[in-house]
Specification:
Blueprint (H helix, E strand, L loop, with lengths): L7 H36 L4 H38 L4 H14 L1 H19 L4 H17 L4 H5 L5 H17 L2 H10 L2 H33 L3 H6 L1 H27 L8 H30 L4 H9 L12
């Protein structure tokens, strides 16, 4: 198998930190969207106690995701600063941190994401304040696109960068809303659960289509051939991500066509428990996809490596002997 690796255990740890930070970022964006825009109409189908429980739990998911994202972005920035500066100790890494933030595009981007997330955490609340937090979290999510291959391979705001921007926004809106959806269904009436399940499904469908389209376009550009897909580390992780995505679609289809309709059946309370547990499993699959995405973003794509090989200088010819 060919292709650039992760640089040993230390490099893999940095990649995993990026993946967890990305998971927190997407969760913050999607959960705030769910709280501010999807949840309110469904709350009217529940009693006061159920409404209070749903608001409390979904608010906690949003706040927790924001805090998680901020802490993990800081950890990723610190670890990556050590890699950039080539440090060998924690004190050297911490000393390099201000320099990386001040003098590198990577430092500028992560610092801007952290500031946007902090502002979102301070602004988060019900009503208009939740909307402000949503836009701030959206800004942090948009900036994530500049960590991906599109910004590195093509200067400026290219069509490829736009596909990656749409990809991360669609992923956040869909995957980030899964966990608050599970909590909402678990603590509200089956009737309210059926309403929110339909609303979330109707919203998630275009997100899934956008994810599939942008992933296909990126794969055509970054991988380029079946041989690269099946013969490189990048290709194998892309296939893993595709398999996880297919499994996620199976969960989503099962929820929409089988488990959610059961909320209006003969045993709505049992159906509510089954659906909530299944959605949590869907969220775990979503986390696995995000970690795979972070891993693949750290590798040189096969198409980029092929371009490098095609433009590499010819090997020197040794002088004739004898």
């Amino acid at each position: 198998m060919s292709g650039m690796g992760f640089g040993g255990a230390g490099g893999l740890a940095v990649v995993l930190l990026h993946g967890l930070a990305l998971a927190g970022l997407l969760s913050a964006f999607g959960s705030i969207f769910f709280f501010a825009f999807l949840m309110p109409p469904a709350l009217t189908r529940s009693g006061p106690a159920e409404q209070a429980a749903a608001i409390r739990l979904c608010s906690a998911v949003s706040r927790g995701s924001l805090i998680f994202a901020i802490l993990l972005e800081l950890a990723w920035l610190t670890a990556e600063s050590g890699v950039i500066a080539g440090t060998s100790s924690l004190s050297e890494t911490l000393a390099s941190l201000p320099v990386v933030v001040r003098d590198t595009l990577f430092g500028h981007l992560v610092a801007a994401q952290i500031l946007a997330l902090i502002a979102a955490a301070l602004a988060f609340g019900r009503g208009a304040r939740a909307s402000i937090a949503f836009w701030l979290a959206g800004l942090a999510t948009v900036l994530e696109a500049w960590h991906l291959h599109g910004a590195a391979m093509q200067a400026g705001v290219s069509p490829f960068l736009l596909t990656e921007l749409l990809h991360v926004l669609a992923a956040g809106a869909w995957l980030g809303g899964i966990l608050p959806l599970a909590f909402f269904i678990r603590v509200t009436s089956p009737e309210a659960g059926a309403v929110i399940a339909r609303r979330f499904s109707d919203f998630a469908t275009p997100c899934v289509l956008l994810l599939a389209i942008t992933a296909f376009l990126q794969g055509r550009l970054l991988i380029g051939s079946i041989a690269a897909l099946t013969g490189t580390t990048y290709g194998w992780i892309a296939l893993l991500k595709l398999g996880l995505f297919a499994a996620l679609l199976c969960f989503a289809a099962r929820h929409r066509w089988r488990l959610a309709p059961a909320l209006s059946g003969a045993e709505p309370l049992a159906a509510r428990r089954v659906l909530a547990r299944s959605i949590v499993k869907e969220a775990v699959l979503g986390l696995a996809i995000v970690l795979a995405a972070a891993m693949i973003s750290s590798l040189a794509p096969p198409a980029d490596m092929a371009m490098f090989m095609n433009h590499a200088p010819p090997a020197p010819v040794s002088a004739p002997q004898g």
